[in-house]
Design goal:
By secondary structure, this protein is mainly beta. The chain has a single domain (8-207), classed as Metallo-beta-lactamase, Chain A (4-Layer Sandwich), CATH 3.60.15. The protein is built from three helices and 14 strands. The protein has helices spanning 119-125, 143-153, 177-180; strands at residues 8-14, 17-22, 25-29, 45-47, 49-51, 65-67, 76-83, 94-101, 106-109, 130-134, 157-161, 187-189, 194-197, 204-207. The strands form three sheets. A seven-stranded mixed sheet has the order 7-8-9-10-11-14-12, covered by helices on one side. The protein has a five-stranded mixed sheet with strand order 5-3-2-1-13, with no helix packed on it. The protein has a two-stranded parallel ribbon with strand order 4-6. Strand 2 (17-22) and strand 3 form a beta hairpin.
Amino acid sequence: MTAKVRKMKLTYIGHSCFKLEHEGYSVIFDPYEDGSVPGLLPVRERADMVLCSHDHHDHRAKENVELIHSRKNPFAITELDTFHDDRGGSLRGKNMIRILDDGHMRIAHMGDQGCDLTKAQTEQLRGLDLVMVPVGGYYTIDARWAKRIMDQLHPGIIVPMHYRGEGFGFEVLETVEKFTDLYAAEAVIHEGSSIEIAKITASRVAVMEPLSASRK
């Protein structure tokens, strides 16, 4: 009998906000407050759980997500305390990386990572099936710094976030091309806002269109 292929669905809402769906259970990461990110429409979602990496206005809007409690949480969640800057949090405070593990796949959201990982954190994050990582610089690690960390972790799929795109994002941030150019043919640009995640072995970069990007 052929084994069932387990899949999850990841939707890029915008900035650092994503929706992860798995067998009827849904998680929203880092919803932003209304008007806090230029060019993005307000977050209006329903989910079983909301996870925020830190308490800044563009990452903490739990009130914009309606909690539905549809079923039992299938994920074991590991939390890694890091910093929002490379000075021990003295500039922007703390950050939290979360790893979600359903026993078959491991997914991580790195929040506003602003520093290198410790040796222990690197070991915990190695071999992820998918990781969401900031690449825009200024407030977080930049494209080259993110690439260096990804080279240490060897994840299956890399999803960049917290960058400036056409018509959205903070002007001080780098564009996503600064990151994808470092991967050449490994970068896949998706026309839509969602991808399906399954067990894979080859590393690649997946760029999605923000669901909440305003159309003018």
